Amino acid sequence: MITPRGKRLQLSHLRDLRSALPDAPCIVLHSACAEPPRLAQQLSEAAEVFRGATVYGLMPMGEAPYAGVEATEHLSVQALFPGKGLREPINSGRASFRRCTLSEIPALFVSGEIRADLLLLQVSAPDENGRMSLGVSVDYMRAVLAQDPIVVAEVNPQMPFTCGDTALLPEEVDFVINANRGPQVVCPADTDDIDLTIAGHIAGLISSGAVLQTGIGALPDLVFTELGHLYDLGIHSGVISDGVRPLIERGVVTNATKKVLPGKTVTTMAAGTRSFYDFLDRNPPSSTVTLASACFC
C-alpha cells in the first residue's frame, strides 16, 4: 500500500493502514487526557492485525483498551507514565513501565532510541487556516512528529485550541477520523480534614514571587485555594488543572519573576473539567497559558 502523505484523508478504521507499516511497527498514542479514545478502541479491535507492534502511551486518564487481556496477546504495551488507564495492566504484567522523567522523554525520540511508525492524536477542529491544535497535551508530541511517522488525527470539536506550541499544519496530518466523544476530563477529587491540614502546611511554605510546579488531584487544588493573598506567582509545570484558573483570573499568577518564558504560565499538558478546557480554548484570559514540549518543563 502506498500511503498518500499530508492529505488528511478520511479513515474508516485503523486496520486499513496495516499494510503501510513495517512488520513490527512502533505506535505512539497522544498522552494523558488527549489520548484518542476512538483510535485507542480501534487499535484494540485490530490488535491481532497489528501483531508484534509496540505501543507507547503516557498517563491515559481514561480506559486503555489496547492494554486489555486479549489485545496484549498481540501487542507489547510500554507505559512512559502509568496513569489511571495503564496502572492495572502494569500491575498485572500485561504492560511494561519505562522509568524516566517527563523532561527526558523527547530525547528518546530525538535520539532515535524510539522511532515511531504511526502516531495517533486527538486534535481540535481546524481553524480558518486549516490548522488543528494538539489541545490539552503537547509533551513529547513534537519530537515524535519530527520523525515523520504516519499521523492519524481524531478530530474533536470539543478539544480546545490552546496557545503555545500546539498548532498542526494541514500537511502534518495524513488521515483523520471523527471523534465520538469529548476529551477525557478529570473531575476534582474528594477531600477530607487531613487533606485540608496538609494543604495548609504546604501553602505556608510558599511566598509571593515563587514559581510553582504542580500535579493533579485534591492536594494541589487545595493548596491553590490558600494562595489568594500572594502576588506575582509563577507556574512552570508538567501538568495544570482547574486549581490554577482562579489565580490566573485574579492576577495572583503573573509569572513576572520567571527566568524562562517570563509572563507565561507554562505546562506540557492540562487535565481538568470541561469548564477548564473551555477556559483554555482561544480565551483571552488564558492567553498567558502556554503548552510547551516536555523538555521545557
Automatic annotation (TrEMBL):
Domain named Acetyl-CoA hydrolase/transferase N-terminal: residues: 30-182
InterPro entries to which the protein is assigned, alphabetical: ActCoA_hydro, ActCoA_hydro_N, NagB/RpiA_transferase-like
Keyword set, alphabetical order: Transferase
Membrane spanning residue stretches: none
Pfam families: AcetylCoA_hydro (PF02550)
Gene Ontology BP annotations: acetate metabolic process
Domain of life, per lineage: Bacteria
SUPFAM superfamilies: NagB/RpiA/CoA transferase-like
Classification via Gene3D superfamilies: 4-hydroxybutyrate coenzyme like domains (3.30.750.70), Glutaconate Coenzyme A-transferase (3.40.1080.10)
Protein name: Putative CoA-transferase
Species of provenance: Thauera chlorobenzoica
